Amino acid sequence: MICPGGPSAVKGYAIGGGSSVGKTTVVAHLLARHDFDEVIHVDDLRTHDFTARSGHSWLRPEDELLEALLASTAQLRPRLIAELDRLSARRARVLIEGEGLEPDLLHRYRDCRPVYLVEPDEDVLRTTLATRPSGHRFRALTPSEQQGVVRMNRRYGQWLRAEAERFRQPWLSSRPWDSLADRVEDCLFGG
Question: Is the pTM of this model over 0.70?
């Protein structure tokens, strides 16, 4: 998708996407090149882990797994809204990243420019989930459970892309990896 032009009155920048699509890597790149008053990682706002609930199973159909993930992000929404309201009132230059930043929420904040990262390839997701720093949790699952995690993340990416298009917000494929940070930077800051 074509990204909007330069930053104008934008004070906040948001990078959304599922697990293992490159959000944290992109944030490190942006921090090295731009000044921000604050950086917020959505994971730091979480108070629950939907996978820790009794009865959770990665063996459920992928649409049920997606529904569980969306329910989890809905529980996070009041904290995100409070944080976004605080930052908007403060008029700080902020970068926020994480799973749970979704188009229907961010379209309310006109001074925040979002981009969503999507990885549609299950093999790529499997590899990145297994090799990331927290990959030990993924590798501890059975192959069937790992497949559930991968399918849920692929499905979330599909949903996020459709929602971004519905709200006319930009999304980018996470690959090619070697140009991801530059592509996100171009999208958020207009090159």
Answer: yes
